[in-house]
Amino acid sequence: MALLLVLSALVHNLMSDPSPSYKWSKVFEKGTGCTENCGEGTWPMYRIPVEAFGKLWMAGRNTVSSSSDGVRWSTDIPKTDTGERYGSTITFFDNKLWIIGGMRTWDEFRNDVWYSTNGIEWTLATAHAPWKARRGHSTVVYDGRMWIMGGAESSGKRNQLPSKRLNDVWASADGITWTLVTEHALWEPRESHVSGVLKGRMWVVGGFEQNDVWVSANGRDWERKTGNAQWEPRRAYGGIVFDNKLWMYGGMGYNDVWSSIDGTQWELVTREAPWTKRVPGHSVVFQNKLWIYGGKTGRAEDRGDDVWVLTLH
Description:
26 strands
């Protein structure tokens, strides 16, 4: 009888336990983004946030800013010039910040790798890694190495966007020596996709007009979890691993938010988030919150400079 009562209580608790609820809060209003000499009440635009050395960091070409709480940002600090670039990745690995690849113009893509032990002084690890120069690739830290996956090659013309995308996977333990894990992964070539580490494996989620999901334990052998996720394919969007789930949100003309615990079934968290439709590419998980810093809101260079945070309640 006692055992039955215990089991009954457990079942009741499981059935009555509500699913996690999430809440969006606005941290910065429109008009608070700054491009240089950022002061109190502003934040540095056009930079990718990354957690490193116990803070959030945003590195530009000649300056860097940091924040202990995601809200109060330091004034710009001069840094070693790593060169102007877009579409690069920045990550924290081996107690160093790393900037990998990217583009300066449509006919000048890069395959250089830089690192910094303090965010200010940057060292060139390699000017020409063995992988093709690219932008729109993804980078994860997994199994004691940095991994880069996919991306787009330059068209070779200043006025023409890339037409060739990649599906290769490379790994490195020091940023200098890179090993080709696979030249052609099972997933189709892509750029602007989301990658992350969840449940001890690496994930590739969607890409430019793609909504498939793939997972791998070694970067060579990939399993397709779904070829058509519940969310619509889109040109660009935000995505991250947060609260032990995969997340996908926004995109050009979208402000929906989705999450998944297994990459196969996706739950619609909210159909219309309180932030306007945008490409929220500059997002980060920091202090158990998901932060979205601005985002591209138009077809040209229109960018929002409001900041939002998602918390678990």
